[in-house]
Every structure is written in structure tokens, then in C-alpha cells.
Write a structure and sequence with these properties.
By secondary structure, the protein is of the alpha+beta class. It has one domain: Anthranilate synthase, CATH 3.60.120. It is built from 11 helices and 20 strands. The chain has a 20-stranded antiparallel sheet that branches. The two termini are 40 Å apart.
Length: 439
């Protein structure tokens, strides 16, 4: 664990009205201003209409306190830090944190990007724009007027700036991918598991990119409700996630797992047909309901008996490249339970593991060739009141500026009914959405 404490005790807070022109550009100006910091997290809802979204965007820049590491129960330390001095916390939990929650699990593959298993920081400055995009609120230990002026005056970087053309390598050949799908189906037939999320890596070595420029391009091509740009020293994440992992407001907790994917079509009639086919697909529904049941079980470990409910089952939502099947599960946390218990009992999220969770995490380690690191983990924020909103890190690029290693991971849920060729095509559809930025 590393912790740095500040002597400043109280944040300055100011609210600034946004004109139409300012609201259109404020996100880019906020992000460009924050680029001076070695640690920052920018979260963008991309105008996504949802009753569950509290903000249009949030930015955390600089750090006055940091908890991070690859060992020990750091979630407990996050809880203790928040209880000692309630404040904003932003950060991540990597997929590898499973090894701390379940000490018999391990990750043998080499870590190439370098995100720690967990990191949360108390930001020097927090900026957030309301859902209606009429106000910018700045909360900082520094002078808010100076920060506001610096943000408003920050240059707008052209999204059209040239991004280098890159050819990605694959950690798994198509033949091996198809064979692995069949191997996993045999595990299912043998009763080892019911569903498993299997992924593979695409990567480039020794490349030089501007991570913020890449994020801007990704966010334009694939605007998503849980988009994020995250930097911690030389580690960068550019994320276009459509999926919420876990949200807490008051005593209520809510998860929205995604299972079920279909491509979009330019022809509106054909696109509507594809959407309807996804809604009726028995295999996709089976994948979705298994994860819904897993999440119901996970939340039941920290929620009031009888409070778990499925608010929506098999909802179909459309994004620029794909249609997705999304369900919503909610519950009421038991009195006196630490808010981090909701995370502890449900991480890693079932949509990125499978069922039963412990066994499939062993199989993931056995069959995948790359360490997941932050992929299949989460980034997000905790408010001073102890509420939080966390995404699922998918549809993301990861870059280490020191080693110049760029990578992504994509895949899907495998069940007994999985068709290996169709699983390959779904994986490539998700990969194409990332690779095309560099074409």
C-alpha cells in the first residue's frame, strides 16, 4: 500500500453556468486541462438517456491521497480511509484483484501494462457536469476560479489529427480459438461449469501513440455510456464501455450485466430485424439469465433478505456498432454493512467470468494466453456520501508509455450451445471497433 496525505482539510466548491457553446466543448476542455496531471480519471456518459446516471461527466485530476497495491485487502483500507474523512475517491479494481479475494487463485501470465490490482485516490480537483449539461461544478483544494478559467481557456484538440496506422498481432490464432471453444464446451458437458467468458488479446509492440488523442477518436466513433480515460503515470486506459458493473445510491445497489451481442446494419429495416432476432435468441437469453442469477446470488450476500429483484430482464439496447441484451438487478443493503461489501461479494463481475465463478476463473487462467490486468475490472468513483458508480472495463485499449506496449482484449460468453465460428465472428466484431481507429 502507498498512501500520501494532504494537509488541506476542506474543498472549495463553485458552480458555473454553461452556455450552449460552452456545454458543447466543456468535456474536451476539461480533459485537455487535466492532461498536465500524472493521475487522472475522466468518465463520460455521452448523453446516454438513463434514469440511473447521476452526471453527464466527471473528472478527477491530481491526487492528495492514494491507496494502491497488489496484495492485502485494500478494499478494507478504502473503506477505512473514507470513514476517517469522507471525500471523493476515484480509481480502479483490476481483474487480478480476484487473487486477493480468493487467495487460491493466481495469474501466471506476464503483466505488460502494469496497473496495480487496486488503486483509489482522493483527487486534488473534481469537476462534474450535470445531466442537463447546464452547470459545471468544481470542487478543489485549489482556487476554483483559477481552475475554471484554465479549463475554459484550454485548447480544443482536433479529433481529426492523424493517428498512426497500426497492425495488431493476435495472441491466439483462429484455429486455436475455435479449438478452445470446443474444449470449453466439453468442460460444460462434463459439468465443470455452465457458462464461461473466454477472451483473447490483440497487441502492438514498440509503438508511439498519444493516448488522449486515441481516446478522443474512440469516443467519437464508439460513444458509450461508461466511457473513460484513465491515466496513472505511464499506464493509460482508453475505454468505450457500454456496461455498468455496480451502482450504489443510499441503501440501494444495482447492477446491469450485459450478455448478448448482435451487429448493427446500415439498413434500418435489416437493423430492426437483427435487433428482434437478438431479443428472441434462446442462446443469448440463456447466457443472460445465468449471469442475472449469479448477480442475484452475489448481491444477496450483502442485501436484505427478500430485497433482491430483477427490474428488467432481456432489455435490448442499441449502440453505434452493436445491439446488446442488458438486464437490471437491484437490492437493498443490510444496515451496518460496509459499502465496499457490495463490491467484495460481487467482484469480478459475473458477465466477465461465468458460472460457477470460482471454477471458471480457474479455466480462464488455464485457457487464455494473456493476463487480463485492468481488462474485465472496473473504474469509477465513490462520493463523499459513500455512494458509487462503477463500470465494466471492456471495449478498451491499454497502453504503457514506457514500454510502448498497446493492447486490447475481446471475447464472449461460451455455453454448450455456442457455435465456434459465430463466437469468433463476435470476438472479431468487438476487436474491429477498436482496431479501426488505427486503420
Amino acid at each position: 500500500m502507498t498512501m500520501m496525505m494532504t494537509s488541506k482539510q476542506k474543498r472549495n466548491k463553485a458552480v458555473y453556468a454553461l452556455t450552449g457553446a460552452q456545454a458543447k466543448e466543456i468535456k474536451q476542455r476539461m480533459l485537455n486541462w487535466a492532461n498536465q496531471f500524472s493521475i487522472l480519471l475522466f468518465l463520460d456518459s455521452n448523453n446516454y438517456p438513463s434514469i440511473y446516471n447521476g452526471y453527464e461527466c466527471l473528472l478527477a485530476a491530481g491526487a492528495t491521497s492514494v491507496i494502491k497495491g497488489d496484495s492485502n485487502d485494500l478494499l478494507l483500507q478504502v473503506q477505512q480511509l473514507h470513514e476517517a474523512k469522507p471525500d471523493w475517491l476515484f480509481g480502479h479494481i483490476a481483474y487480478d484483484y480476484k487473487n486477493i479475494l480468493e487467495p487460491k487463485l493466481s495469474s501466471a501470465h506476464k503483466a505488460r501494462i502494469g496497473f496495480p490490482a487496486l488503486q483509489f485516490f482522493v483527487p486534488q480537483t473534481v469537476c462534474h457536469v450535470n445531466r442537463e449539461q447546464t452547470f459545471l461544478t468544481i470542487e478543489s483544494f485549489e482556487d476554483t476560479t483559477q481552475i475554471y478559467n484554465a479549463i475554459i481557456e484550454a485548447e480544443i484538440e482536433s479529433v481529426q489529427k492523424r493517428i498512426p496506422a497500426l497492425q495488431f498481432n493476435s495472441a491466439t490464432s483462429k484455429e486455436e480459438y475455435l479449438q478452445t471453444i470446443n474444449n470449453l464446451r466439453r468442460h460444460i458437458a462434463d459439468g465443470d461449469c455452465y457458462e464461461i467468458n473466454y477472451c483473447t488479446e490483440g497487441y502492438c509492440e514498440d509503438v508511439s501513440i498519444n493516448p488522449m488523442q486515441v481516446f478522443n477518436a474512440l469516443n467519437v466513433l464508439s460513444p458509450a455510456p461508461f466511457a473513460a480515460y484513465y491515466r496513472t503515470d505511464d499506464q493509460h486506459m482508453m475505454c468505450a464501455s457500454p456496461e455498468r458493473y455496480l451502482r450504489k445510491e443510499g441503501v440501494g445497489v444495482l447492477s446491469q450485466p450485459i450478455k448478448g451481442t448482435a451487429r448493427r446494419d446500415k439498413d434500418p429495416v435489416k437493423d430492426a430485424e437483427i435487433k428482434q432476432q437478438l431479443s428472441n435468441d434462446i442462446k443469448e437469453r440463456a447466457e443472460n439469465v445465468m449471469i442475472v442469477d449469479l448477480m442475484r446470488n452475489d448481491l444477496a450476500r450483502c442485501c436484505e433478505t427478500g430485497s433482491i429483484k430483477v427490474d428488467e430482464l432481456f432489455g435490448i439496447y442499441s449502440f453505434p456498432q452493436v445491439h446488446q441484451m442488458i438486464s437490471t438487478v437491484s437490492g437493498t443493503m443490510r444496515a451496518g454493512v460496509p459499502f465496499t461489501d457490495a463490491i467484495r461479494h460481487s467482484f469480478p463481475m459475473g458477465s466477465m467470468t461465468g458460472a460457477p465463478k470460482y471454477k471458471v476463473m480457474q479455466l480462464i487462467e488455464q485457457y487464455e494466453h494473456s493476463r487480463r490486468e485492468l481488462f474485465a475490472g472496473t473504474v469509477g468513483y465513490i462520493t463523499p456520501a459513500g455512494d458509487f458508480d462503477l463500470n465494466v472495463v471492456i471495449r478498451s485499449l491499454f497502453y504503457n508509455a514506457e514500454s510502448r506496449h498497446l493492447a486490447y482484449q475481446t471475447g464472449g460468453a461460451i455455453t454448450w450451445d455456442s457455435n465456434p465460428e459465430q463466437e469468433w465472428e463476435e470476438m472479431r466484431l468487438k476487436a474491429w471497433a477498436l482496431e479501426r481507429i488505427f486503420s
